[in-house]
Amino acid sequence: MTLVFGFETSCDETAAAVVRDGHLMLSNVVASQVEIHRRFGGVVPEVASRQHLLEIMPVVSLGLSNAGVGWGDIEGVAVTHGPGLAGSLLVGVSAAKAIAWARGLPLVAVNHLEGHIYANWLHHPGDPPPPPPLFPLVCLIVSGGHSDLVLMEEHGRYRRLGSTRDDAAGEAFDKAARILGLGYPGGPLIQRAAGKAAAPQSRKLPRAWLRGTDDFSFSGLKTAVLHLAQEEGLWPPGGVSPGEAVVTELAAAFQEAVAEVLVTKTVAAARTHGGRQIVLAGGVAANTRLRELMVERSSLPVLLPDPNLCTDNAAMIAACGYHHLRAGRTAGPDLDVHPSLKLA
Length: 344
Ligand code: KG4
Ligand code: ZN
Fold this sequence. Notes:
Nucleotidyltransferase, domain 5; alpha/beta; binds 5'-O-[(R)-(carboxyoxy)(hydroxy)phosphoryl]adenosine; single chain; binds zinc ion
């Protein structure tokens, strides 16, 4: 039985968790800064890092007490060291290094994107564990900063098949929501608006297929939403309420375009690269239409993380860290942050 303590501060969530044997969540504490950044329409890096400084120690204490354990029970400390905002990452990495050093615990550096994948194998006490990975698997990682298609050959072994050439899927959701006057963060608001559309298929937006590659592009779609919003008098903002038919129809058309491209390209990549399973990860993996369409279109088994674990948390970092710890991949006190860290 191995307990790993996880830290996550790569963006605007201060998070700490204790995970047993890479899958059982004994605690999972997330202090979100979303209310602080909402008025700016996006994350303000300097504000985020200062807020992490205020939150980190109370969140760490809660992570330990909610799990009902003490530092003496913990066998490793895992922390996100990239990619993300430099100032935000620095808070988590500094705290993790200090605790690892003070308690004589091994320190494990986790790539945030790899961490997202491990949300798929987490479960709460009393719930059955999700099925184990079927390697090689194809993972679609879609978050606010990334859209990557990755072939995971085994724990810790990845091949990047493709990624976005411009906007990440989550970033596109956030920008489209802003154009439609729905607010921030955009993903859940677009999903809600799309769900209210009386005629969800009444409008069609363009899809960028980038045929012959496993890459994505979403900036053209965003521009198409902007042009339609201008034609309909939605942009510049003001005057039209978020419940109006034109808003809900455009939200539905946008969500369908993103989901269809992500699903079609993931299913094709799994076929080309011999994947035995499709796995979703990252904040956008919480999207119900994306989840539904992936299951519908894939002949391979599809693994979907609990929607509450798709967005940033530390349980996924502790789960991933457990596998690195077992493989002996530990970090030293010179561990630094890597804002542009890539997977594979
Ligand atoms: O993984 P995450 O929490 O943070 C990053 O690592 O970037 O992802 C946040 C992103 C945001 O862009 C947010 O709008 C999007 O995930 N998101 C969603 C949904 N929930 C969160 N996008 C579409 N549908 C959702 N239900
Ligand atoms: Zn993330």
